[in-house]
Write a structure and sequence with these properties.
single chain, 232 residues, alpha/beta, Rossmann fold, 5-stranded parallel beta sheet, globular
Length: 232
């Protein structure tokens, strides 16, 4: 029996465990075309390594790395502006944290849509998480619903391009559990906002990740400078 050729999908792959799990979901249905953005983030080199390691894990034929360092020039985020300190985790806070990069996902998705239209991909996957996220406004379900309307208006008739967010309603605990179940390479991922060697264990991203592993009853394969119990 002849193998059925999969259609391509653009998969946004930051190198974190959310995007890695999203890649696991998407790769089951589509030929992955991995997209990574360097936007001047503090851990840019380490995230890029994670991207390449994960893309190699999935034996990806299609990968694109794009520089959008103008986001660093614009500033306004502790991830891109060295004058702004990366705040310690406060996962109970409802405020938008200093790590929010203004309208980042809109910029990233615009590039993804352009690439999708060129290579004939009808789906774009992004590992946005709303239920257990740090409160970023561009990680909400309503944002992606609105973006899909814009894609329909702004691409060629019949392009059929649509953004999918398969893990948007999951908690970090569920993401860890699903990652083990689906064989997502957690050992290759990187989440820390501050460090490129050992994860700091104190930023929002580390806190959410550590809590997820703890609640899932699993040991995080990533090494930390400091391990704090965020389940209390």
């Amino acid at each position: 029996m002849a193998l059925v050729k999969k259609n391509k999908a653009v998969i946004l792959l930051s190198g974190g465990m959310d995007s890695a799990l999203t890649a696991a979901y998407a790769s089951r249905r589509f030929e992955p075309a991995f997209l990574h953005l360097n936007y001047g983030q503090r851990t840019q080199k380490r995230e890029l390594k994670a991207f390449n390691d994960i893309a190699d894990y999935y034996k990806a034929k299609f990968r694109l790395i794009v520089d959008i360092s103008h986001l660093k020039d614009i500033g306004g985020s502790s991830l891109t502006d060295r004058k702004i300190s990366v705040s310690k985790a406060d996962i109970k806070s409802k405020k938008i944290p200093s790590s929010y990069v203004p309208f980042r996902n809109a910029n990233i998705l615009a590039i993804a849509v352009s690439w999708a239209e060129v290579i004939g991909a009808r789906r774009i996957f992004i590992g946005a998480v709303e239920a257990d996220s740090s409160g970023y406004p561009d990680c909400r379900k309503m944002f992606f619903e609105a973006y899909n309307k814009m894609i329909k208006l702004g691409t060629k008739p019949g392009s059929g391009i649509k953004v999918e967010t398969p893990i948007i309603g999951l908690s970090k605990q569920q993401i860890v559990e699903k990652s083990y179940k689906m064989g997502s390479p957690l050992h290759l991922t990187w989440s820390c906002y501050k460090s490129e060697t050992k994860a700091c264990g104190e930023c929002d991203s580390c806190a959410l990740r550590l809590r997820g592993f703890e609640l899932a009853g699993k040991t995080d394969p990533v090494l930390y400078k400091k391990i704090i119990d965020y389940t209390k």
